Amino acid sequence: MIKHIFTLVWNKRGKNFLLFLEIFLAFAILFIVFTFAIQAFRTYSSPLGFDTKDSWVAFLEWSEELDSTALEDTKLRLEQELEAKPEVLSASYLGQVTPFGGGMWQSVNDDNGFELRTHLFWSDEDFFETADLELLGGRFFNEDDQRAKYKPVIINRKLWEDSFGGKPILDSIYQIQGENRVVGVVDHFKYVNEFRSEEPMSFFLNPKASRDLPNIMLELAPGTTAAFQEEVNKTISDITRRNDFRIVDLDQRRVSNSRRYWVPLIAALSICAFLIINVALGLFGVLYYTISKRRAEIGLRRTLGATQQTITFQFIAEVLMVAGLAILLASFFAIQLPLLNVMNVPDSNYYLSMLFTSTLILLVVLLCAFYPSQQASRIHPAVALHEE
Q1: Which of 190, 211, 244 is the last residue of a domain?
Q2: What are the residues whose beta carbons fall under 8 Å from the beta carbon of 171, sequence distance 6 or more?
């Protein structure tokens, strides 16, 4: 039966070529879009590793006129005043790099005998509690680390696996920013954007009074309203004697940063949906016209004893054969991308995209072919032969 269907398709190769080309091009476009969409959704769904809900970050500007003693007194007083409020569960000073703040600090070195590529993040010892990071091994920073011979560092799982191969490294000394002792490993920390893959991270400890930690992060009690921001604003203004600061809701900033990725992604998927609709309408029209031109063939087959189900199956099988050949050829070119490692995309995303694209196209073809094939099977043989 398959050989017979293939023969029918081959004999009408001239008429089937445009249908073949349409499906081939549709596969190519859908494959590319679905590959990047799958990559985007997988990255988006990967864990952040910290909590953004009920978290604010105040970006502060500290006067250069403040000496180190005055700065320390002011910063400690500000932290105490904020933590004294029942709405504030904890507070932590951060460096210039903050979650979803747009800033990044990267370092690459081979001082350890292997390439160590990492993003850098500075904070005080309270950051991990404030952000609710999950500890995989070791410990978080404490006040004794300020006086340690080797500066402590906490790394994330990705850096541990990528650069250290997952081997035991706690309390080992490595060259990261000078000589650092690894005291802990946290699980995840995806701080740049939800649609950007997690980076290898190194967390460094700075004193709360350091001028290098200008910003403060607040963990709020669940249900704290935006009206509380006015009270925080007044507290910061009264203590720092400055008004050139801003307070951002970390969760809102996360959503805002992701929006610029959602817009082109939704636009691309909308174009794909429009393409599928146009392919379906064109396919339906072509099949309806083609089948109507084969009424004599249908009448003859019915006269020779073919059933309605046989006629329906034949026309559906012919269309699926054309679609299958187009998908097979398109898949041959598509599979070259993971084999040649053309783009920095996991191979599984390519294969998953090929599966989704093939399934979608075959489903559309099947739906478009079903009604015209059903109509063809209902043609009365006597009427069809009389018309001929």
Answers
A1: 244
A2: 138, 181, 182, 183
Structural domain includes residue 202: yes
DSSP element (H, E) containing 325:
helix 308-334
β-strand pairing of 151-156 with 201-205: antiparallel
Higher pLDDT, 318 or 300: 318
What is the pTM assigned to this prediction?
0.81
Q: How many angstroms separate the CA atoms of 350 and 271, rounded?
A: 20
Give a yes or no: residue 55 inside a domain: no
Judgement on whether residues 303 and 218 belong to the same structural domain of the protein = no
Question: Do 77 and 198 share a structural domain?
Answer: yes
Query: Are residues 311 and 373 located together in one domain of the fold?
Result: yes
If one counts every other C-beta atom within 10 angstroms of the C-beta of residue 339, the result is 9
Helix (H) or strand (E) run with residue 371 in it:
helix 347-377
Q: Tell me which residue of 209, 190, 172 sits closest to 51, measured CA to CA.
A: 190
Q: How confident is the model at residue 354 (pLDDT cuts 50, 70, 90)?
A: very high
* Together in a domain, 206 and 343: no
Q: Which long-range contacts (CB under 8 A, 24 or more apart) does 287-292 make?
A: 287/315, 287/319, 287/368, 287/369, 287/372, 287/373, 288/372, 288/375, 290/15, 291/315, 291/372, 291/373, 291/375, 291/376
Q: Which residue has the tokens 């073809």?
A: 365
What string of H, E and C letters represents the secondary structure of 108-169?
A: EECCCCCCEEEEEEEECCCHHHHHCCCEEEECCCCHHHHHCCCEEEEEEHHHHHHHHCCCCC
Expressed as residue numbers, the domain containing 279 is 2-46+259-387
Bridge partner list, 218:
56, 91
Report how far Cα 23 is from the mean position of its chain's Cα atoms.
28
Tokens representing 340 are 């040649």
Residues ≥6 apart with Cβ < 8 Å to 61: 214, 242, 244, 245
Is residue 296 a contact partner of residue 373, using CB atoms and an 8 Å limit?
A: no
pLDDT mean across residues, the chain: 85
DSSP 8-state code for residue 184:
E
Within a domain: residue 130? yes
